[in-house]
Design brief:
The protein is α/β, with parallel strands linked by helices. It contains 13 helices and eleven strands. It has a single domain, classed as Alpha-Beta Horseshoe (pyruvate-formate lyase- activating enzyme). It is globular and about 55 Å long. Bound molecules: iron/sulfur cluster.
Length: about 325
């Protein structure tokens, strides 16, 4: 414990994420003595990062930007839960209640964008944790990221569940005109009961759809991703139909979907939650998720339902 405190006894400088991991390993999340507590009961630990642009493989994009780690939206299916373990933090409650804030993120990004070796590839924002979770209202790091990308005319995409994105429609429109920018608002399901149970900290789905409408009206290429569809909970045809119809009614340029995948800490957390909330589904899940993905046949079936529904909705009455 004494060693943990010493690690933070560095004058006014902020720790790196590695130092945070060391502190937590020794003393648990309670050892983050300089983490700010806020009204939402989460603790916010400011950290400094060495790099902003993060290379990824096997995704439709090659670079990601994530100014925050952890997410107070706390969706039970969130695949980023497992990444919290990298900081010795838990994938359960600590994922949604201990948030790392990279305060030098925009400065670091500017330096990276200015390097002659940077090829100006698309940067995907908010892929690991939500870049418009409530604390963004205080730090405005995501807005700073968009402004930096604008300055360097660098194309970007944004994915979020946070309607706060409309705050930045001016800079999103500017970036769209200069370099191209595509926004995806994640709305897995418009049903109120499903929303409350799966995504306890997020804004109401209709509020997210109103954000889509506002972005589209501002000339921004914005769509909806039903991400993820959760088997047995949000996978009924009627729910998929209602969600696609609502997205189309709010002007979404595209409507896509994916089926939940489960691995590592995310799988452990989700299965514990399922046992509590939907014990009748547990056996079915063990059959369906023998690996990290739902069976191929199941995913094909969902894709068919979504494609068919989308075609019907777009064709009109
Ligand atoms: S909003 Fe996104 S990042 Fe945040 S908990 Fe939900 S799925 Fe995870």
């Amino acid at each position: 414990m004494e060693t943990a405190l010493l690690l933070f006894d560095l004058g006014r400088s902020k720790p790196t994420t590695r130092q945070v991991a060391d502190v937590v390993k020794l003393g648990g999340a309670d050892a983050l003595t300089d983490a700010m507590k806020r009204a939402d009961a989460a603790r916010y630990q400011e950290v400094v990062c060495r790099s902003a642009l993060n290379p990824v493989k096997g995704m439709p994009f090659s670079w990601t930007l994530n100014p925050y780690r952890g997410c107070t939206h706390g969706c039970h299916y969130c695949y980023a839960r497992r990444y919290h373990k990298q900081f010795e933090l838990g994938a359960d409650d600590e994922f949604a209640s201990v948030i790392l804030v990279k305060t030098n993120f925009v400065d670091v990004l500017r330096k990276e964008l200015a390097k002659p070796s940077w090829a100006g590839e698309l940067a995907a924002i908010g892929t690991a944790t939500d870049c418009y979770q409530p604390i963004e209202g205080t730090y405005k790091i995501t807005r700073g990221v968009l402004e930096a990308l604008c300055e360097f005319s660098n194309p970007a995409s944004v994915v979020t569940k946070g309607p706060m994105i409309v705050r930045d429609k001016d800079v999103l429109a500017d970036l769209s005109a200069r370099a191209g920018c595509h926004v995806v608002v994640s709305v897995p399901c418009v049903d109120e009961e499903v929303w409350r149970s799966l995504e306890p900290g997020t804004a109401h789905p209709m509020q997210r759809l109103r954000a889509v409408r506002e972005l589209v009206d501002a000339g921004i290429d914005a769509g909806v991703l039903m991400s993820p569809i959760v088997p047995g909970i949000s996978s009924k045809r009627s729910l998929i139909g209602r969600t696609i119809k609502a997205a189309a009614d709010h002007g979404a340029r595209v409507v896509g979907c994916n089926v939940m995948h489960l691995e590592g800490g995310t799988r452990d957390h989700f299965m514990r939650w399922l046992e509590q909330e939907h014990p009748n589904l547990v056996d079915g899940y063990r059959q369906l998720y023998r690996g990290r993905y739902a069976s191929g046949a199941y995913r094909d079936e969902i894709k068919k339902v979504v494609n068919g529904t989308r075609a019907r909705v777009l064709a009109g009455p």
